[in-house]
Amino acid sequence: MRIMYSLAFAIWLTVSLCAMTVLWTYESTPGPNAHAPDQWPSTSKLASSDSSKQLLVWLHPRCPCSRATVAQLDRLLVHLPQDVHCQVIITQPPDVASSFVETDLTRSVRSMPVAVVMDDRQREARRFGVATSGQVLLYGTGGRLEFAGGITAGRGHHGDSAGSLTLRRLLSIADPPPSSDSSSVYGCCLFASDANAGSNQ
Prior knowledge:
The chain is α/β, with parallel strands linked by helices. Helices cover 31% and strands 15% of the residues. The chain has 2 domains: 1-30; 53-197, Glutaredoxin (3-Layer(aba) Sandwich), CATH 3.40.30. It has helices spanning 2-27, 66-77, 104-110, 123-127, 162-170, 194-197; strands spanning 53-59, 84-92, 115-120, 136-139, 145-149. It has a 5-stranded mixed β-sheet with strand order 3-2-1-4-5.
């Protein structure tokens, strides 16, 4: 009997370790970073101004990983200078009902002091070369790309990250300039199906 208990425990421990390894690998694997144009695309319909910087955040409305991005963005907005205009772009794939974007994630973004844009048929995502939920782009007053990356340390990870600290320094005159203008992006693929993106009802 003792041998059976020992064998059962060994099997349970092995399965648990394998599951933890798979979960850790998933959480720490970034999605593809944007191939964003160095200059603001002339074909974009997003609001822009020569007198303000544009902070753009892309979200898949059903990506559970992006709740951490929204939480980190909420913290970042407290330190946002007045000359920075923040837009959160909610991707809306083609051939889906309008209710597809009506999730808890979308509702939480609407309660924040940002402009919320529905990206019908993902046109803006394609114009800016964005492929991952949680992608953040910062364009300067001259329309020049200053930052492209994510602001979380992993999928669903809350708290500061290399990306959020870099972005905060770029937005602050007092802090020294960051050593990098990019970071990894952790989130669901914008062009995945609803099933692959997860559920965020």
